[in-house]
Amino acid sequence: MRLYLGFDDTDDADADFGTGRVVRDFCALVGDRAAVVGIIRHQLPRLPGIPYTSHNSSACVLLDAPGRESLPGLVELAAGHLQRVAAPGADPGLCCALADEVPGGLVDFGLACNGRKVSQADALRAASGLTLLGLGGTNDGIIGAAAAVGLTRYGWSGRCIIWGNMRSLPDPVSVAELAAEGVRTVNVDRDALVPQPGDLVHGGWIRPSVLAGQPVLQVLADGPGCWRTAHTKRPKAHAPAAQAGHGAGRGPGTGGGNGTGQGAGLRNRPSVPGIA
Length: 276
Prior knowledge:
There is one protein chain. This protein has helices at about 20-30, 70-85, 105-115, 120-125, 140-155, 175-180, 240-245, and strands at about 1-10, 35-45, 55-65, 95-100, 130-135, 160-165, 175, 185, 200, 210, 215-220, 225-230. By secondary structure, it is α+β, with helices and mostly antiparallel strands. It folds into two domains: about 1-160, Alpha-Beta Plaits; about 170-230, no CATH class. The protein has a six-stranded antiparallel β-sheet. A hairpin with a 2-residue loop joins β10 and β11. α1 (about 20-30) packs across α2 (about 70-85) and α4 crosses α5 (about 140-155). The chain is globular, with a radius of gyration of 19 Å.
């Protein structure tokens, strides 16, 4: 039973960690409650009027849960983790849905988030009947959390920050080793050849894109039988002060994430029976 857990807005301008780190730490807590399939990072736009901390990204954890009865405990674990570790000026949000129960409206919402500013009310409408929790500050994190679930279901967005054991793979790594972790290797050169199983990929930063719902590592030719990753890690750069928009502590603040900075009281929002 595939479960999506969307997380957003866990840090602030003073934090030495980001949402990706918070979500990876959550996965370490899951234990035998479920199997961690991967984490997909989703980029949201950095547009005027949209507050964000550094890159304006959210994340979705993919879990294989043993049954519906395990879902409330997983949601409780995720919500508790966010409340414990989110930065003082953060506005964290959490969204939960079974993969085959994500409505088309939530996919449309995620796509809309890629092009314009949206509101908490938009997120609530799109995620109606699902678990959507604001867990501090302005609760603006519900926007990115809902978008992360919708975009994961869409299957043509984001990149994997965890997939199988890809973080423990060597550098260089063979195409066959990547395939064993469920990662396809695709040449994105203009005159593209197909990477062979014994070919080696150099670069060390393995972060596959999600294409057609599958992890796909984009590579460029780097000599016979050799490839290099097409994308590399970039340094974290905080947003300009005018865009940061975070409130102090857990108070009302002025907004954070991809939203308006309005709304509260979502922590106890009713959810669909059997999920949370």
